[in-house]
Specification:
The protein has 8 helices and 8 strands, in the order E-H-E-H-H-E-H-H-E-E-H-H-E-E-E-H. With 241 residues, the chain is of the alpha/beta class. It has a single domain, classed as Rossmann fold. It has a 6-stranded mixed sheet, with helices on both faces. The chain has a two-stranded parallel ribbon with strand order 5-6. Helix 1 links the parallel strand 1 and strand 2. The protein is globular, with a radius of gyration of 16 Å.
Length: 241
């Protein structure tokens, strides 16, 4: 169903574009007393943008089933209107209780993949072969690969069919080490994601100031630096589609 790059999944009159959101199953740091999970606004901002374009959307996670929520993201002032509306709608909450497993996903059905963040993804995204398969297939068939904040950890070890790393030589951004330090969790995370990207040959970029919106687009590859970048990242993906 995909054409050759750089074209995306074929669609005709009445056919909606389809987006696959990737969310975490991890509910805590190495210390079980330190909860984490999906940073909800990174999903809700993008979901709203894509819904406004009439795109069909589905959620997948490494293990399937429940995607836990990062508690800090649910408190004022980080819990914005889109977050509160999502939490107030039982239908939306149900989506996070029954996410698909990667082996239930046919990449040929999707035009784009969007990796959400939250610190939990640092544990379950990087080495998941199912997510790597889906990402590789979507990209090589001409689709869009995107991530926001820690979501780029899901791209660290993805290899293309020729064996090369997807991120090597590619301009991208994601949650910076300075933001980890300022957030007070640098000692708790399992690795420095920014440095890990650089070690893989990625051309990492970040904004001059922390926590401000920043999006980097390199062809059909779109990444946002932090939670504040989710809406702008989704708009760039929508523009490509």
């Amino acid at each position: 169903m995909f054409g050759q790059p750089p074209s995306c999944l074929e669609s005709g009159p009445g056919m909606a574009k389809r987006i696959l959101h990737v969310v975490t199953n991890v509910s805590h740091y190495d210390d079980p007393r330190h909860p984490t999970g999906l940073w909800l606004s990174e999903l809700t901002h993008a979901y709203r943008v894509f819904a406004g374009q009439g795109f069909e959307q589905r959620l997948v996670s490494p293990r399937g089933g429940v995607s836990p929520l990062e508690p800090r993201a649910l408190k004022w002032p980080l819990a914005d209107r889109s977050t509160r509306q999502w939490l107030a709608d039982p239908r939306n909450l149900a989506l996070l209780k029954d996410t698909a497993r990667p082996d239930a996903i046919d990449p040929a059905e999707f035009h784009a993949i969007y990796f959400t963040g939250g610190h939990g993804v640092m544990w379950d995204f990087p080495d998941d072969s199912g997510l790597q398969r889906i990402t590789r297939d979507i990209f090589e068939r001409g689709g869009v690969v995107s991530a926001v904040c820690h979501g780029y950890c899901g791209l660290l070890n993805t290899r293309l069919s020729d064996g090369s790393l997807l991120v090597a030589g590619r301009r991208l951004t994601g949650y910076s080490w300075s933001e980890e330090v300022l957030a007070g969790v640098a000692r708790d995370v399992p690795y420095n994601a920014e440095q890990a990207m650089k070690d893989r040959g990625a051309l990492y970029e970040k904004a001059l100031l922390p926590f401000v919106p920043n999006v980097v687009r390199d062809g059909r590859f779109v990444t946002g630096q932090n939670p504040a970048s989710a809406k702008a990242t989704a708009k760039q993906v929508a523009a490509l589609l």
